[in-house]
Each structure stands twice: as C-alpha cells, then as structure tokens.
Amino acid sequence: MKMSLKKTKENGDKPPISGVTLNNILKNILERRFTEAGRIIDRMESRIKEKGYSDFARGFIYGLRGIILMYRMRNRNTFISRLDLNDVNLLKKYYREFSEHAKNKLHGDYDRGYFSALAKFMFFALKNAEKSKK
C-alpha cells in the first residue's frame, strides 16, 4: 500500500495540538499543576478524536500523560525523578535522542508520536533551564 506524502508528513513531525496549548500543558507540568495539565489534555484528546485519531496523535497524547505520571511518581525511581531539569547539557542530550526516535521511520506512528511528546517536553524544559540561568 502506497502512502501519500501529505499523510506521512502529517503523521511524522507535527504535534496534534497547537503550540500555545502544548506550551500551556508543559508549563503546568513543570509547575506541578498536574490536574490542570490533565484537563487540557482531556479537552485536546476529545477534539482530536472528533477529527480522527491517528496512531501518531494517540502516541503523542499518551506521551504527555506518561510525563505527568512519571512526575507524580517523583518519589519512585522513574526517568523524570532522576532527571535534573536544570542541567542544560543533559536536557540537550535527551532532546536530541528523543527527536531522533520521533523522526525514525523504523518506529511505528504511535511510537514516533510518543517520542515526539518526550522531545517537546525536553525542548520546553531546556528553554526553561536556559532562561533561569540568565
């Protein structure tokens, strides 16, 4: 089955929610306002489902939910609990790594969406860390 270029581009790089909304979600996560972040994700997920819920979009939404879950479990041994959100070099490393996975066509659409959400979070945390260092 041949896939159109438009469909591939649509599922590969672009988050299924607007940049402003995504920034709002990520800001709420960093400020530990998980309930508010979850509400925004719920609203966006409903809108996405109405338009058609691609595997990439589903992976992206579940990636955001996973970040919240890891943050909530901060006392346990999760990736986020061990991550120093002030370490610019470490955030750059993870941003590059997750971005590579998000673009890798060997991964399925769901996985690329999930990694894309993690990359967006790392980028947001990186910009936040760079601002606070200035």
What does this entry look like structurally?
The chain is mainly alpha-helical and 134 residues long. The chain has one domain (17-133). 75% of the residues lie in helices and 0% in strands. The protein is built from 7 helices and no strands. It has helices spanning 5-12, 19-30, 34-51, 55-72, 79-82, 88-103, 109-133. Helix 2 (19-30) runs antiparallel to helix 3, helix 4 packs across helix 7 and helix 6 (88-103) runs antiparallel to helix 7. The radius of gyration is 15 Å and the shape is globular. The model is unreliable at 1-12 (pLDDT under 50).
Give the CA-CA distance, first to last residue.
Answer: 51 Å
Helix amount: over 70%
Whole-number mean pLDDT? 85
| Rg over C-alpha atoms, rounded to the nearest angstrom | 15 Å
Beta strand count: 0
Beta percentage is under 5%
Largest sheet: none
Output the number of helix runs: 7
N-to-C SSE string, H for helix and E for strand: HHHHHHH
Structural class given helices, strands, pairing? mainly alpha
Number of domains: 1
